[in-house]
Amino acid sequence: MSVxxxxxxxxxxxEAARQVIAERGFPGARITDVADRAGVSPALVIYYFKxxxxxxxxxxxxxxxxxxxxxxxxxxxxPTAAGRLEEVVAMTCHVSSEVVLEGSLELWLxxxxxxxxxxxxxxxxxxxxxxxxxxxxxxVRDGVTGGEFSGVDEDDFAVAYTALLDGFAIQVALGxxxxxxxxxxxxxxxxxxxxxxFAWEPRRARRRTSGKQPTRVRG
Amino acid sequence: MSVxxxxxxxxxxxEAARQVIAERGFPGARITDVADRAGVSPALVIYYFKxxxxxxxxxxxxxxxxxxxxxxxxxxxxPTAAGRLEEVVAMTCHVSSEVVLEGSLELWLxxxxxxxxxxxxxxxxxxxxxxxxxxxxxxVRDGVTGGEFSGVDEDDFAVAYTALLDGFAIQVALGxxxxxxxxxxxxxxxxxxxxxxFAWEPRRARRRTSGKQPTRVRG
DNA sequence: GAACTTGGACTGAACGATCAGTCAACACCG
DNA sequence: CGGTGTTGACTGATCGTTCAGTCCAAGTTC
Lengths: 219, 219
Fold this sequence. Notes:
Two copies of one chain form a homodimer. Chain A has helices spanning 8-24, 31-38, 42-48, 52-76, 81-92, 104-115, 119-145, 154-173, 181-196. With 219 residues, chain A is mainly α. The first copy, chain A, has a domain at 60-196: Orthogonal Bundle (Tetracycline Repressor, domain 2), CATH 1.10.357.10. Chain A is elongated and about 55 Å long. Chain A starts with 7 loop residues before the first helix and ends in a 23-residue tail after the last helix. Mean pLDDT of chain A is 90; it is low at 207-219. Chain A binds a DNA duplex (30 and 30 nucleotides) through helix 3.
């Protein structure tokens, strides 16, 4: 799993690779770029990872792991299930940003496209998506148990809601002029509150970056 | 727009390019592949389209146009708004397949990933997505006017529902072991019927290709 | 209507750039 | 000294693009 302290070189290169992929895309990432960013020679990169494909696949895996670790870390701090769900949505819609997550959404687009042909990447994607679904599922279970949520099949909800968030992630990552981060966040939370039966009001404290004003929450 | 009858060579090459992209992915598509498939020399491909990037971008545009043309064609045959919506969902979840649509979902993944860096592709994607949203919006408007649907903001619904369908398209395109075409279709229709307030029952006539049994999972 | 010209469609071969991966050598360290 | 880490220089393959030139159908001229 490449613990930074035990394998500093590997970790350093994986992080470099993550950044390069986010910038130039999976197919556009060159070992030279990774080497430059890590401050080493291209040959050393091959020395540690046998091939470019291997390096990139591992970088993808690590990036996903990082993302979910950050998600867990944040969720653990929040007492209510609704709050945890909101945090997940915020992360996915890039409303709250953090350096660790830089380029995560963009990486997803490459992850999906690459998963179509590369079996190793495909495995990472499947695992990652199931992880995401399970996270949602658990939050819903907790919410139902604690009396916050009601009237929903947790499994169907998890499937539908991850799809919804993936869809919003696309829009946000691509900087869609109609569906910006704020709009995506609001609509996603609106759907969740309605489906799960909890109260939620958009807080206008957040500054919007793009997207239309959400017109009147439905009656 | 490259009408087949007026510009047979261009159209032939664009179709070849579409197939090659679907097979090898956008970055993996080589002009040699396109030339071979079209039965011409690589040089001729460059002769018609100035560059590879240009060819591929136009192929993407044409593919999207084809998809929406097919969608309109089908929708026009269906009298009820609920039926039209169901048809759109069926197309997106690949429940009903047609030769014309072969590889469309896979192409979307490449479209999104490529849109991150290529401005021309980005424009295609934005236009295409707005087109999709407008289609949904119009169906909802019709449904509300005709008394089929009620209690929904058409704009918010369109934004959310296209995101949902995009998300399902990913799962289906990647052959997710948990979320297959049938499951995606059922859940998507369930969400729609609930949000729009119309009756819908899963018909078990459709044959499933993958994915778990949709009703009653995990006891 | 024969001879000649024009221009578009088309090709094979070659060029040149780009990269992933190799290798022999070297430095450092226990 | 031997092994681990590191490098610069090189190689081999891939591919987009260019180019010189062929082919042929449709004018044009006398």
